[in-house]
Amino acid sequence: FERIHLESWKIQEGREWRAHTEALLTDQSWRTDTEDAFCMEMHLCLLAGKYDFASGEYDSARQLLLKAKTGSWRRFPKLCREVMTELARLMETENDNDGVKAEIGEIRMEWPDLAKEQPELQADLLVIESQAEENRGFYERAKMLLEEGKILIEETNGITEEARKEKMVYLLNGLGKIYCSRHRYHKAMRIFSDAISLCDSREEFRTAFLYGNKGYVLYRLGKYKEAEEYLTKQRQIYQSAYCDGPTCDELDNLNALIALYGRMNGKEDQIEECWKSAMRGIGEGGQRYRDARICLCNNYGAYQFRKNKLEEAIGSFDMGIRLCDQGK
Predict the structure, then answer these.
(1) Degrees to nearest 5, angle at CA 268 with 263 and 271
(2) What is the C-alpha to C-alpha distance for residues 164 and 248, in angstroms, rounded to an integer?
(3) Per residue in 236-266, is it b (16+ CB within 10 Å) or e — as a string?
(4) Which of 194, 291, 277, 191 lies closest to 236 in space, CA to CA?
(5) 172 FRET partner, CA 20 to 30 A, in 14, 150, 259, 304?
(6) pLDDT tens track of the chain, all 328 residues?
(7) CA-CA distance, 97 to 251, in Å (whole number)?
(8) Is 233 left (phi over 0), alpha (psi -120 to 50) or beta?
(9) Which helix (H) or strand (E) holds 175?
(10) Residue 75 and residue 38: Cα distance in Å, rounded?
(11) 12 Cβ partners below 8 Å, 6+ apart?
C-alpha cells in the first residue's frame, strides 16, 4: 500500500499499478476492524478511482469515488477533500455540474455544523462548488461562494497559519479564474500575484497551476515575455515531476506555450519541441487527455497556417478531428 501510495502521482504508469490496487481491495487478509484499515480501504478506492478516471473508465471511477466519499466525509475530512476534488473533476468531464452540487449538498445537510467543526473542509467544498457554478455560467454565485470561503478562513480560530495560507491560495485562485473568464485580466493578475505571494517556495509543485494561470493572463494582456517566464517556470516544475509522458496539467501548459510562441518571433524551435512533448502517447489517457490534445492540434494547426505551411496545418487539424471521433 505504501509503494502504491507513493507512486500514485504517476497515474499513467500502467495497468500493473491498477492491478496492485485492485488486489489489495479484494484481499481480505489485511482487513481488521480498525480505523486505520478502514482509512486504507477508502484511500485505495480513491487511488483506483483516479486511475480509472484518467483511463476513461468513468462508470468504474464514479462508483469507486462515491464509495470513498461515503466512507470518508465525516471520519477522514482530509481524505474527503481529495475524493471530492477528483469526483468533481469527473462530473465536470461528464458535464454533470448538478451532480457536484448534490454531493456537496448531501454532506452539508447531514453535517449542519460543518463550517464550525471542519472549516478547512468547508472551504475546500466551497471552492469545488464554485467551480461547478462557474461551469454552469453562474459567475456571481461562484464568486459569492469563494468570498464566503475567504471570510470563513480569515475569521475562524484554531486554524494553523500554514493551513490558512494554503486554503487562501485555492480560494484566490478560484476568484482569479472567475475574473479571467469575465475578461477582467488586470484584476485576475493582481489576485494570482497575491496567491503566489502566499506560497511556500519549497512547495512549488503544489502551486504550479498559479504560474500557468498568471502566465495565461499575461498572454491575454499581450505581455508575451512575462507570460513566457511564468509558463516556462510551470513547465520546468512539471518536467521535474513527470517522466513517463505528459499529464493533463502538463498538456494544458504545453498548449498555452504553443499559443504564446505562435505570437512571438523566433520561437519556431520551441514550438516544435512543445509539440513533440505533447504528442507522446497520443492515444492514451481517456477523454480528459483527448480534449487537451484536440486543443493542441488546433493551436498547432493555426500556427502552421499562419506560417503558410498548409499541408502541415491540414495534418494537424485532421489529427484533432480523429481525436474528436475517438471520443464519440
Answers:
(1) 80
(2) 28
(3) ebbeeebeebbbbbbbbbbbbbbbbbbeeee
(4) 277
(5) 259
(6) 555 555 544 444 556 667 777 777 787 777 677 888 888 889 889 988 988 887 778 899 999 999 999 988 888 888 898 899 899 988 888 888 888 889 998 888 888 888 888 898 899 999 999 988 988 889 999 999 999 999 999 988 888 898 899 899 999 999 999 999 999 999 999 999 999 999 877 667 777 889 999 999 999 999 999 999 999 998 888 877 655 556 667 778 888 898 888 888 888 899 888 888 877 655 555 556 677 888 889 989 988 998 899 999 999 999 889 888 875 5
(7) 23
(8) alpha
(9) helix 161-181
(10) 10
(11) 54, 244, 245, 247, 281, 284, 285
The torsion angle over the Cα atoms of residues 222, 226, 231 and 233, rounded to 10 degrees, is 180
In the DSSP assignment, the letter for residue 35 is H
What's the one-letter identity of residue 90?
L
**How is residue 247 written as a grid cell?**
499529464
Q: Which residue has the cell 497551476?
A: 209
Residue of 69, 99, 71, 105 whose CA lies nearest to 84? 69
Q: What is the DSSP secondary-structure string of 202-228? A: GGGGGGHHHHHHHHHHHHHTT-HHHHH
Query: CA-CA distance, 105 to 114, in Å (whole number)?
Result: 11
The residue with cell 483511463 is: 55
